[in-house]
Amino acid sequence: MRAPALALLILALGAAAGAQESPAARVADLAWLAGHWRGLLANGAIFEAHYTDAAGGTIVSASKEHRGGRTLAFELELFFEKAGRVFYQPHPNGRRSEHVFPLTHLEPAARRAVFENKEHDFPQTFIFERPADDRLVIILRGPDKNGGSKDIRYELQRVE
Predict the structure, then answer these.
(1) Of 46, 103, 149, 150, which residue is most buried, by most CB within 10 angstroms?
(2) In the chain, what are the domain boundaries?
(3) Which CATH architecture has domain 19-158?
(4) For 100, what's the count of Cα atoms within 13 Å in the CB-facing half-sphere?
(5) Strand blocks (E) in the chain
(6) Count of Cβ atoms closer than 10 Å to residue 126 Cβ
(7) Closest to 99 (Cα-Cα) out of 64, 73, 124, 80
């Protein structure tokens, strides 16, 4: 009797937290990404990203990092649905990555989504959070060169 009661408690806590697994999610659940975002990075560069709305079942993003009138890097991103799941696929410097990142965790009420692919070197995890209407946080997480963990954090503000 204890095991079923514990399982029900775990399910109830998961539901109370507003978490959804990827199969129940849709790209439309990520509509909160839409907008024009900008932030200053630790290296002094400016990071700027544009996310489209979720119309048509996809979100497309274009971002760039620039400093001193010069673009340092750019990336295209695609959020899409396939076989009932949501995926994120980066295109660093315009080249499609061979690695696709499935949505592994979604908290719609918190406007938080996690995409993971442990087969990729770095990053293995992309976390997108919208803690306030005018803020977007993106965290890239994965192993560092010394066997530890490394985070790269983008703190962005909405550009009107």
Answers:
(1) 103
(2) 19-158
(3) Beta Barrel (2.40)
(4) 10
(5) 35-40, 46-51, 59-67, 70-82, 85-92, 101-107, 112-116, 125-132, 135-143, 149-158
(6) 21
(7) 124
Q: Are 69 and 57 in contact (CB under 8 A)?
A: no
Q: Which of 128, 59, 71, 123 is nearest to 97 (CA)?
A: 123
- A 10 A CB-CB count for 154 gives 20
pLDDT in tens, 82-102: 999 999 999 999 999 999 999
For residue 115, count CB atoms less than 10 angstroms from its CB and return exposed for 0-12, middle for 13-18, buried for 19 or more. buried
Spatial separation of the C-alpha atoms in residues 104 and 102, rounded to whole Å: 6
pTM equals: 0.84
Amino acid letter, residue 157: Q
Query: What are the pLDDT digits (tens) for 31-57?
Result: 999 999 999 999 999 999 999 999 999
User: Residue written as tokens 């060169």?
Assistant: 145
Which amino acid type is present at position 41? L
